[in-house]
Input
Amino acid sequence: MKKHSSIKIIIADTAFIIRKGLRTLVNENKQFEYVAEVADDKTLKTALEKNKADVLIVDHCCDDCFSLETISNIKNTNPDLNILVISHEKSAQEIKKIINIGIKNYLLKDCDEEEIIDAIRACAKGDKYFCGQIIDILLEKEISVNEHCIAGSISARETDIIKLLVTGKRPKEIAAILNLSYHTIVTHKRNIYSKLGISNTVELAQYAYRTGLMK
Output
């Protein structure tokens, strides 16, 4: 993705209501450009052949829709395409299957708007992004650091929040500074702690200085 260019997005989901919701979110964000939406493998293949996209948002829940094989084939035949999987699948075993084919962006369908937007931005840049719930599932199953890529999943928004937390700002103050809701900040904070495997701001500060976030 070129600097300052819009992020061109194709949406692939079997459910009309999900496609409509994602299309609305994309159209309401000036950084995003809606390209196409599809509901099955055949139309997805055609859309990818006819359109240039930066990000494919694709549902994966069963082999009857966009299967693991389908997603893997798309990844192999479109190496420059960044793929964001959005699913209701909460099985650690199934999540690992997605990760193992090289997918590094995974959200659950009940994620909030801010998390979806952050994930799309990260995906377009080629960064890793797993939502907080996915990280929780992986941590509970004691998956290795290399598999869930904790440090790589910290988004730009979460980086901003880390910096503010380390300087002593409280969630309510951060919400006002970033023009976000208090609940959103609290959710991000919980996800950050979960991703980094920490439990307090002292450990967060150590992480921030160690990784160069704070100079």
Notes: Residues 118 and 133 are 15 Å apart (CA to CA).
